[in-house]
Specification:
single chain, alpha+beta, 13 helices, Alpha-Beta Plaits
Length: about 375
């Protein structure tokens, strides 16, 4: 075997590996220094995750440009070239996705740090998440198409498909009607600001928080840690409750059915005292009033407020429990009671003898009768 046949490919491959490792190490050093110098943005730290696809792309590019002169498997030059082309397309797509992810994530983090409005932060998070998914999907589709076009047979198939693009477009449109509807609904949600990641919603009588929004489906995490997966078209075609729309603050009510003798003024003072001891109360609303009455009880309603849906639930439960405990300890008569004593028996029926006895016992009536006789 010719020495040049083995030595030249080994030198080329070794040189490519050395250049790749050197360039990757230099890039990582520059990114670490930039990250230490610019701590206000996480961009440079996130770009360090691009080291592996960068090295793979660089190595593949160098090999693709030198594999013929290096005589790497000269008997299979076409297969080597096609393999390097496929790896180059895949690694370049991987690198592009990593760069886009770093840019999107750093942009969101910087915006979240500068913006105190939580609702706007959730809106931007939803938008950048969907934009990132669209970019990733587009890169993957383009890369897959480019890989397929490297095969001559696929070029012939592509020309045939283009000739019948009209018919295929109609068939694909009908077959993918639901998918396309969800896709456009996802874009409408992202830029229409109707629902965002982190919003508290009520859908199909289920209360939960929006955990994930994709181009086709949406995930709601319920209070008991269940996940409800729904098509995004649901949120553009059916009514639902969004408790975080326009702000996360919420107002809640607590009801008691109490006795008519309930001391309302001390109860109002106790409500304020209870709320001061509940850290989830935001201090906006604390009111108590009688809203209804029945022959046996009165309905007392307390109105309280909190910063979000989770906190308002905690405040309502705390107020309900502590107020009942206070009434049972200080004013037990205020709690509703059920009368259990027997009802009085009806009087016995009157007889003729009872009527004669009653007339004889009435002296006025008896005297009047005798005088007239």
């Amino acid at each position: 075997m010719d020495t040049d046949t083995v030595l030249r490919p080994a030198l080329v491959v070794g040189g490519v590996l050395a250049v790749t490792l050197l360039a990757g190490g230099l890039l990582d050093l520059l990114l670490r220094r930039a990250d230490a110098r610019h701590g206000e943005t996480p961009l440079w730290g996130l770009l360090r995750h691009c080291r592996t696809p960068f090295r793979l792309t660089l190595a593949t590019t160098l090999l693709y440009g030198s594999y013929r002169e290096a005589r790497i498997l000269p008997a299979h030059g076409g297969a080597v070239g096609r393999a390097l082309t496929l790896v180059l397309i895949g690694s370049a797509s991987w690198l592009l996705v990593r760069i886009a992810t770093a840019v999107v994530d750093s942009t969101y983090v910087r915006y979240a740090l500068r913006t105190p409005d939580e609702a706007r932060v959730r809106r931007v998070r939803t938008q950048v998440t969907l934009i990132h998914r669209v970019v990733t999907a587009a890169v993957v589709v383009i890369a897959a198409g480019a890989m397929l076009l490297t095969f001559p047979a696929m070029r012939t198939v592509g020309a045939s498909l283009l000739a019948s693009a009209g018919i295929i477009g109609i068939v694909a449109g009908i077959a993918a009607q639901s998918l396309l509807g969800n896709l456009f609904a996802g874009l409408q949600i992202a830029f229409g600001d109707t629902v965002r990641i982190g919003d508290t919603v009520v859908v199909d009588r289920e209360w939960g928080t929006v955990e994930e929004i994709t181009l086709t489906f949406l995930v709601v995490r319920t209070w008991d840690e269940r996940r409800i997966t729904m098509p995004v078209s649901y949120f553009t075609s059916k009514p639902y409750e969004n408790w975080s729309r326009g702000g996360a603050e919420m107002t809640g009510t607590v009801f008691w059915h109490l006795d008519h003798s309930t001391p309302l003024e001390p109860m109002r003072e106790q409500l304020r005292q209870i709320l001061k001891e509940v850290p989830e109360w935001d201090g906006r609303t604390a009111d108590l009033a009688v809203t209804d009455t029945t022959p046996h009880t009165i309905q007392v309603r307390a109105v309280v407020s909190a910063g979000n849906a989770s906190d308002i639930w905690t405040v309502r439960c705390a107020v309900r429990e502590r107020m009942i405990a206070w009434l049972a300890d200080r004013h037990p008569y205020a709690l509703p009671r059920i009368a259990t004593s027997p009802a009085p028996a009806p009087p016995p029926p009157r007889t003729a003898r009872d009527d004669d006895a009653a007339d004889a016992a009435d002296p006025v009536d008896g005297a009047g009768t005798t005088g007239s006789g």
